[in-house]
Design goal:
Elements: E1 33-36, E2 49-52, E3 55-61, E4 64-67, E5 82-85, E6 91-95, E7 108-112, E8 115-119, E9 139-143, E10 150-153, E11 166-170, E12 173-177, E13 180-181, E14 198-202, E15 209-214, E16 226-230, E17 233-239, E18 242-246, E19 260-264, E20 271-274, E21 287-290, E22 293-296, E23 315-318
Antiparallel strand pairs: 1-3, 2-5, 3-4, 6-8, 7-9, 10-12, 11-14, 12-13, 15-17, 16-19, 17-18, 20-22, 21-23
């Protein structure tokens, strides 16, 4: 009985089993394709460069692919085989200043100059972007020759210390090297004897002279407007640096300074004026007193410029005598 139902292979006669058969399938060849290698390193270590890669036209046959003639991939868009690259900006060292003056005036010192790392665009960048082995020197030793000491001094003072009679003139004396001041008032490293710092001078015999002496001006006599100031004038006799008060008659031959002068304290502001309070309006009990208040300028003209906040009261309540 045939039912076309699948059963176990043990139920069939193995000797009658047909041999396996193969037949071709999917007979169309696989399409070709472009295959690109990894990009090469950039052609330069800094600045604009180029990277390259290899391109192959390949085609798969079964489980493996094979390089085929590039013509087979001519219908496909070919990938780029080069591209621009820039690992970093190119920078270089630049000396931006001349050497400084030596740090000492004599002997061995140091001098410096500015060195900076600059990009191709001219901007200052971090020094790490420049080759440290190529960096120009920024500091070096300098020799200004041996240090020689000598005495140096100023001119004598223009005036004698006394206005008449004997006095002294002074000057400064220092022991110097080309590098600075040497210590030691007795000479220090200066071998030669120290020059004099003072010498005698004489302005001639002291002759007594008389003169008017004026005190400072007093304060102005008014707080505003035009006023006057006063001062005292006395006759004094001068002998050298000493002064003695003498009678005014000894200065009579000299023009006497003014004892009074005008002073201007600026324009006076208007101010409030009042009359006396009037009599109380009641003879006993609570009454009222009044008075007139006016704003007047310095020339006693009526004005509206007084400060209203400081205006005196015009009325006041009075209660002096109780009504019996």
């Amino acid at each position: 009985r045939h039912t076309d139902e699948e059963v176990s292979e043990r139920s069939c006669d193995s000797a009658a089993r047909p041999a396996p058969e193969e037949e071709p399938c999917n007979t169309q060849p696989c399409p070709p394709f472009w295959e690109a290698s990894a990009w090469s390193e950039c052609s330069v270590s800094c600045g604009p460069g180029v990277q390259q890669r290899q391109l192959q036209c390949r085609q798969s046959f079964g489980s493996r692919s094979t390089m085929v003639h590039p013509q087979r991939c001519s219908h496909l868009t070919q990938p780029e085989s080069t591209q621009a690259c820039q690992l970093q900006l190119c920078s270089h060292w630049e000396v931006s200043s001349n050497w400084s003056t030596c740090s000492v005036d004599c002997g061995v010192g140091r001098r410096t100059r500015s060195v900076r790392c600059v990009s191709d665009q001219g901007s200052v960048v971090n020094e790490n972007e420049c080759n440290s082995r190529l960096r120009p020197q920024g500091s070096e030793e300098c020799n200004m020759g041996p240090c020689v000491t000598n005495w140096y001094f100023t001119d004598w003072s223009n005036t004698c210390s006394a206005q008449c009679g004997p006095g002294v003139q002074k000057r400064e004396v220092v022991c110097l090297t080309r590098g600075g001041v040497r210590d030691g008032g007795g000479g220090g490293d200066c071998v030669a004897e120290k020059p004099l710092e003072m010498k005698a001078c004489n302005r001639g015999p002291c002759v007594p002279t008389v003169m008017w002496y004026s005190s400072p001006w007093s304060q102005c006599s008014v707080l505003c407007g035009d006023g006057s100031q006063r001062r005292d004038n006395i006759c004094v006799k001068k002998m050298g640096s000493d002064f003695t008060v003498v009678p005014a008659t000894e200065c009579a031959h000299l023009e006497k300074p003014a004892a009074v002068q005008e002073c201007d304290m600026g324009e006076c502001e208007p101010q409030w004026f009042t009359t006396e309070w009037s009599a109380c309006s009641q003879s006993c009990g609570k009454g009222l007193q009044v008075r007139e208040v006016r704003c007047l300028t310095p020339d006693k003209q009526h004005s509206q410029a007084c400060d209203p906040a400081s205006k005196p009261e015009q009325e006041q309540i009075r209660n002096t005598i109780p009504c019996g």
